[in-house]
Amino acid sequence: MKKRLAAVLAMLLLAAALALPAAAMEGYAPETEPSAEGAYVVNLDTNIVVYEKNSETPLTAASLTKLMTMLLMLKNYQDQLDTITVTAPVYVFNILYGLDASNADIRAGETLTLRNLLYAMELPSANEAAYMVADYMGGGSVDAFVAMMNAEAEAIGCTGTVFTDPCGLDEGNMTTARDMYLILRALLEYDAFVEAAGAFTYQMPANVHHDAPYTIRSTNSMISPNSDYMREYTQGGKTGNLQAGWQNFASWHTQNGETYISVLLHSSQEVADPKGGRPALAETCTLMDWVFATFTIAPALDTTAPITERPVRYSTDADTIMLYPADNMQTLLPAEGGAELTQQTFDLPEYLTAPIQQGDVVGTVTLSINGENLGTVDLIAGSTVTRNQVLYTLTKVGEFFSSSYFRVVVILTVIVIAVYAFVWVCAILLGGSKGGKGRPGSRPRRPARPDTQR
């Protein structure tokens, strides 16, 4: 099955990997801070956090819990959504009876496909649909499914999330803005979820208690054509709330090829949207309008212009060589100021040695904003520089005679000669003293010749 947003998510395959800290965009903040108790906005193209507020604080998840239920269902049955059917067990409705919980008007004994249940969970936030999935995947045990939910949350890197039911009605379901970003990011790998979350309406099939197909609608007014909250850039999302006064919203947005995930937890209706009753949607509109106006994906480097230069040794062609970035490093930058706001850190030798071929990698440059690294790019030689062999040889000879090695050899040689001379002189002196035992200056007598007969 093809994955949507594959290019966007290619750099995010390690589920536990953290996004770059919000400090990278320190100094940039919306004019009005959201009332949400927790918030997290991440650019998916660069994995840079552009806004964060109490993103590690556990808060009531409410119906955002269903995102994990959908994730587990798609992870296990993404290719069987239209072939696997589930019948609604009676006990599910006993659990939900009297709770005034959101639903898709599914009744006990009705049978639906997993795709039907996906849309029911996503659009009207149907609690009975979430319980049906939990019953099916848990082999009749909702508790077994909840254990699967918590295991999956841990596996994708969540650190402040605990699930206690499959739908979010229990206040014990807790999550953080950052954790919900991880869950939604994982869901975006599945076409079926992207399509469901982007749909404002869906036709449920005729069933035991429905003589004809009927329409369910999304609680996400940011994709509603007739809503004041509607934004063209919003691709989909999931709402959640348990009580009047606050709302959660996890969503994703694309404009001019740039994609963000935004999560707002416990946006205050009284502060954010006293009349409309959609506080998290209202604050998401304001926040994402600011994000798209403030940041842009742009090249941080110019591959056609030299970024620095270095001296060259052993060549008469040139004294220095210009170095160019090998990549323009598309990254998230402030719309005003752009690449000029980045800091450059070079990893280069003091000088380069010929021969050098144009295009040779000779070092790297690392870019950062506010001390947070954005990435590292190779530096390449902008021209070819040949070696002058005579200059190279003379330089090497000079280096040899001025080297510590040469000085050590000379010193050792002098020491050896001195020792040898000392030993030689001593040998001469000792030899002379052994040969003269008479008076000084006396000549030794010759021995008398024996008489000879004539």
Account of the 3D structure:
The chain has helices spanning 6-9, 65-77, 90-96, 114-122, 127-137, 142-155, 177-187, 191-197, 269-272, 279-294, 389-401, 404-435, and strands spanning 38-43, 48-53, 59-60, 85-87, 111-113, 174-175, 201-204, 214-217, 234-240, 246-255, 258-268, 295-299, 308-313, 320-325, 330-334, 343-347, 352-353, 361-369, 372-381. It is of the alpha+beta class. A six-stranded mixed β-sheet has the order 16-18-19-14-13-17, with no helix packed on it. A five-stranded antiparallel β-sheet has the order 2-1-11-10-9, with helices on both faces. Strands 3-6 form a two-stranded antiparallel sheet. A hairpin with a 5-residue loop joins strand 9 (234-240) and strand 10. Helix 2 packs antiparallel against helix 4, helix 4 crosses helix 5 (127-137) and helix 5 crosses helix 6 (142-155). The longest helix is centred in the last third of the chain and has 32 residues, at 404-435. It is elongated. The termini are far apart.
Uncertain runs are: 1-17, 437-442
Sheet with most strands: 6 strands, mixed
The portion of residues assigned to helices is: 25-40%
Strand fraction: 15-25%
